[in-house]
Amino acid sequence: MKFSTSIICVASAAVCTSVSAFTIPTGNTCHRFISITNHQPSAAADIRYHYVVSRTTSALQMSQEEMDLITMDANERMDKTMSNLAENLSTVRTGRANPNMLDRVEVDYYGAMTPVNQMATISVPSSQQLQIAPFDKSTLVDIEKAIIYAGLGFTPNNDGNVIRINIPTLTEDRRKELLKQCKAIGEEAKVAIRNIRRDGVDSIKKMEKAGDLGKDQALDGQDEIQKMTDKHIKMVDDTVSKKEKEVSTL
Q1: Measured distance CA(220)–CA(171) in Å, rounded
Q2: Contacts of 43 (CB under 8 A, 6+ apart)
């Protein structure tokens, strides 16, 4: 914001008049305002001048706050993606029994696809076995089928009361399949993070086009989103790499 002021005094009228010119940048354009203040007992002209400056400053602050909200939302959504990644990777078995192995198994329960861990208690009697005890025993067969169709490589044993799953030792071919599964889950997370980046950048560009943000402000916001994107992509790689080591460990 630039100001220039000239003073004109008219002695005969006992009035001193100041002419103030100021320029306010808005987006890629600048608006120039002229304020004429008569230095008399009434300060109405001064009040109008300060109101224009105050209102413009407030608008710029609101635009910055709106952009900050966009970047914060993008960061929160990326963090949520990381949480989902951890949950999905936990379903990839590593040769030891873990209730999380069944987290992605869903059962058709009265027409609604329901996670099996909401329909039964899943316990680990031994390091190589899972036990599923349904709350409603009439769902035993449906749960058994859902586990088979989930493609986890498990063979459930239904004794009429509970379902037992013996976790077989991983073969080399099965390990390779699980490693591919880990990479696929990681790629899904990366795509989600890049989509979040696109949404954030597009929102900032729209604000700049509408004149709500200056070019430098918009570039700063886009740069911040790119940095958080790079950080989360690296986190995905590190998380997948850790899981791959677990799967590869005999």
Answers
A1: 51
A2: none
CA distances from 38 to 41, 44, 81 (A): 9, 9, 61
In whole angstroms, how large is the CA radius of gyration of the chain? 32
Residues 151-188 have pLDDT tens digits of 887 889 999 999 999 987 778 888 898 899 999 999 99
Does residue 6 have a pLDDT over 70? no
Kind and range of the H or E element at 8? Answer: strand 2-10
| E-only strand ranges, 83-242 | 106-109, 112-115, 120-126, 129-134, 156-158, 163-166
Q: Give me the residue label for tokens 């036990």.
A: 131
Find the helix packing angle between 44-89 and 172-209, rounded to 10°. Answer: 170
The DSSP bridge pattern shows strands 106-109 and 112-115 to be: antiparallel
- pLDDT tens profile 76-130: 999 999 999 998 998 887 777 888 888 889 999 998 999 999 999 999 998 889 9
CA 90 to chain centre: 21
pTM (two decimals): 0.61
Q: Return the higher-pLDDT residue of 229 and 168.
A: 229
Strand partners, 117: none
Strand ranges of the sheet holding 120-126, from the earlier edge strand across to the other edge: 120-126, 129-134, 163-166, 156-158
Q: What is the DSSP letter of 210?
A: T
